[in-house]
């Protein structure tokens, strides 16, 4: 039987309905155009990326007697409490068991969380064909099958498969298994992106009006783009939409005075550069008119650069290699005591170390193909000798199998390692950096992520800063989770979110920020999850490293 495609064919209407409009967003994703723009103009990734899903199915069950089923697909995301939130619906395709739907469904791909997708296929009854698909009551339609997957899972992948497609077996409401054949569902994913081009320009003004009485103006430029609402939003880069370029006279009190402005698109700015000509600034008058000024804007440099996204790299074969280092200093308390941060609850309730390993590991493991993770401890007596970097696994092998392997090695180490001290980060950072350094010459597709979980104050703060400055040149990011009630102000120094890069004892400055720190107590008492708070900078750090070295995706 041939495939069926939505749309008009030989004058006969094959598809009906379809939900059109702006991309559907999961409310949990918290989409906000202003926030999205804030991140992008700084060269950073926002907390999500738009993914457009195209769906097709094969060998669906036929529940109609005279004709064939009229299938429609519905996509849900499974939330943390187990409930399903609908993300979108396709159109209905008439009389078809092998549909290819035209209507796309948009999903907010979030690196920071595990997104469980659930697909339901329905046979829409003929009497509902004139209704809006969005208003259709699904409990009144015949259920054809269900499929599930994790959006970012490496073995069940959409966005990181090189063909961006994934075929899933459909099953009944009771889950996989059974003798019935429900057919298959194929999901194809594409990252929604208007353009991958970024433009670097060098602008110059001449003959500007002087706005100061006793000295010359202190001019600066502000570039804004026109939004759909008709308002201008300050930016640093944009698509080829009209730009508002304003020149101000700077005043220290913040009351900057407008010198002049002009409207130009990127292509018009490029033409100014090619023609080596200037454009006159204008000054808006109260009557809505513009006064042409003698001051001009020149474009001395115009360079177009292709900027690849995080998903471009991941889908071409780049990986995140996960590593863990656990604090075994005595300040954690004796593991057998219930007030210890290392206490293993027989009821199965996780301690803070276990929570951090699970929450971070479950996200990053999907980007590591072999799922063999280096796992170390520090600050404990291992084999009777104090060590600040020892294998959690009670063997010579420093790697363990999967997140559960880390959990098992951690629990076992609590019986074989004596808690001691002091708290030193330097040795584990240097060990992780050595692995990352080896990869720079052997495999450029590997980027390393070290998770350090600690309860205490560092006693080697300068040595740690020296190690971080050296590691800033490597494909490495370091995530630090603080557990317990210690004062973690030192950690905030390491996490250079204030814009000041770390400096070593020799005066060397870090080439980039590679640290993200979060105290577990603050996260669990708030609304945002620990994973989201900890991982939100990771895609940006990954991109900063690869872009600075002109490393491109393998298929580019």
From TrEMBL:
Annotated ranges, domain C2: 30-168
Gene Ontology process terms (BP): cellular response to calcium ion; defense response
A GO term for molecular function: calcium-dependent phospholipid binding
Membrane disposition: Lipid-anchor
Cell compartments where the protein resides: Cell membrane
Pfam families named among the record's database cross-references: C2 (PF00168), Copine (PF07002)
Keywords on record: Calcium, Cell membrane, Lipoprotein, Membrane, Metal-binding, Plant defense, Repeat
Organism superkingdom: Eukaryota
Cellular-component GO terms for this entry: plasma membrane
Presence of the UniProt keyword Transmembrane in the record: no
Family matches, as SMART domains: C2 (SM00239), VWA (SM00327)
VWFA domain: residues covered: 321-538
Family to which this protein belongs: Belongs to the copine family.
PANTHER family for this protein: COPINE, PROTEIN BONZAI 3
Name listed for the protein in its UniProt record: C2 domain-containing protein
């Amino acid at each position: 039987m041939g495939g069926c495609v939505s749309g008009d064919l030989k004058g006969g209407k094959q598809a009906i309905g379809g939900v059109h409009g702006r991309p559907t967003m999961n409310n949990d994703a918290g989409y906000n155009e202003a926030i999205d723009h804030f991140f992008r103009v700084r060269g950073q990734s926002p907390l999500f990326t738009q993914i457009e899903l195209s769906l097709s199915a094969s060998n669906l069950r036929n529940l109609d007697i005279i004709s064939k089923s009229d299938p429609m697909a519905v996509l849900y995301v499974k939330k943390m409490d187990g409930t399903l939130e609908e993300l979108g619906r396709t159109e209905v395709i008439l009389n078809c068991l092998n549909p290819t739907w035209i209507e796309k469904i948009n999903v907010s791909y979030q690196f920071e969380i595990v997104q469980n997708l659930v697909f339901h296929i329905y046979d829409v009854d003929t009497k509902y064909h004139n209704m809006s698909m969005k208003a259709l009551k699904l409990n009144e339609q015949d259920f054809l099958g269900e499929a599930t997957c994790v959006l970012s899972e490496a073995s069940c992948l959409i966005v990181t498969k090189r063909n961006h497609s994934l075929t899933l077996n459909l099953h009944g409401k009771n889950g996989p298994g059974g003798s019935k054949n429900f057919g298959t569902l194929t999901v194809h994913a594409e990252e929604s992106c208007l353009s991958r081009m970024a433009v670097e320009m060098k602008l110059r003004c001449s003959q500007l009006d002087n706005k100061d009485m006793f000295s010359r103006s202190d001019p600066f430029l502000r570039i804004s783009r026109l939004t759909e609402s008709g308002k201008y939003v300050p930016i640093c880069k944009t698509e080829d939409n009209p730009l508002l370029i304003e020149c101000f006279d700077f005043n220290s009190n913040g009351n900057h005075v407008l010198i002049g402005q002009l409207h130009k698109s990127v292509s018009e700015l490029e033409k100014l550069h090619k023609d080596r000509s200037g454009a006159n600034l204008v000054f808006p008058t109260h009557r809505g008119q513009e006064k042409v000024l003698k001051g001009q804007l020149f474009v001395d440099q115009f360079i177009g650069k292709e900027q690849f996204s995080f998903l471009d790299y991941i889908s071409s074969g780049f990986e995140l290699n996960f590593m863990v280092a656990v604090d075994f200093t005595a300040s954690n308390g004796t593991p057998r005591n219930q007030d210890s941060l290392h206490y293993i609850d027989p009821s199965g309730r996780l301690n803070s170390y276990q929570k951090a390993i699970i929450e971070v590991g479950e996200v990053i493991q999907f980007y590591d193909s072999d799922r063999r993770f280096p796992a170390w401890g520090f600050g404990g007596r291992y084999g009777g000798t104090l060590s600040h970097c020892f294998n959690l696994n009670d063997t010579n092998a420093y790697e363990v199998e999967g997140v559960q392997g880390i959990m098992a090695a951690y629990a076992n180490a609590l019986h074989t390692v004596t808690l001691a001290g002091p708290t030193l980060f330097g040795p584990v950072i240097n060990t992780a950096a050595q692995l990352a350094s080896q990869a720079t010459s052997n495999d450029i597709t590997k980027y390393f992520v070290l998770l350090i979980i600690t309860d205490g104050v560092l006693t080697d703060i300068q040595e740690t800063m020296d190690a971080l400055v050296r590691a800033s040149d490597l494909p490495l990011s370091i995530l630090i989770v603080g557990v317990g009630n210690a004062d973690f102000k030192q950690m905030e120094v390491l996490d250079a979110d204030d814009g000041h890069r770390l400096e070593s004892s020799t005066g060397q400055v870090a080439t980039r920020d590679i640290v993200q720190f979060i105290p577990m107590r603050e996260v669990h008492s708030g609304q945002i999850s620990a994973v989201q708070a900890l991982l939100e900078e990771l895609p940006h750090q990954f991109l900063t490293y690869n872009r600075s070295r002109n490393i491109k995706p393998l298929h580019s």
